[in-house]
Amino acid sequence: DTAVSQTPKYLVTQMGNDKSIKCEQNLGHDTMYWYKQDSKKFLKIMFSYNNKELIINETVPNRFSPKSPDKAHLNLHINSLELGDSAVYFCASSLPGERFDTQYFGPGTRLTVL
Amino acid sequence: AQSVTQLDSQVPVFEEAPVELRCNYSSSVSVYLFWYVQYPNQGLQLLLKYLSGSTLVESINGFEAEFNKSQTSFHLRKPSVHISDTAEYFCAVSEIGGAQKLVFGQGTRLTINP
Hints:
heterodimer; A: mainly beta; seven-stranded mixed beta sheet; four-stranded antiparallel beta sheet; 11 strands; B: mainly beta; six-stranded mixed beta sheet; globular
């Protein structure tokens, strides 16, 4: 059973388009995250949601808008795509408690903007 | 704010040789420490973590890491590597009591040669 799944796995699109990446977790976790991994493999958090509420919003352009319809899903919508948005986007989830809990990552979505 | 430095971008070793992947961090507050592994074309998986207690932590596949507070380091070691250990390894920290945000290092590519 897939714990954290993302669709699509690959996404190739033109500059200026709008696209969405979907993430679903079946772990019963309350918190979900989006991370961006650039071409140099550097990973950086973008957003996190806890029970559909935005918790972390790093300095990400407002072309990126996360949407959490329920606590099992956190989708990432990107408007007016730019070349620099090309990256691998990872979704993750965790069950927050008093101490840091393990974040479980999805397989990633490779976005290529032409 | 926290930052993580992985001192080696690539580490090639021969099979059955020992290996050490170095990680140093900077933080004005106490942090939790993690090592994640990313196998080719896959998402990240937690390898091991230090939350508190014994400064030496171990994984199920023979890796270990030691938290050294005075040197702000969390180096990863394995006494004898296998071909299957070939992967990208990421060191990460998270502020204790903070928003469960992982701050990653740049990653170290471990390549095992037969």
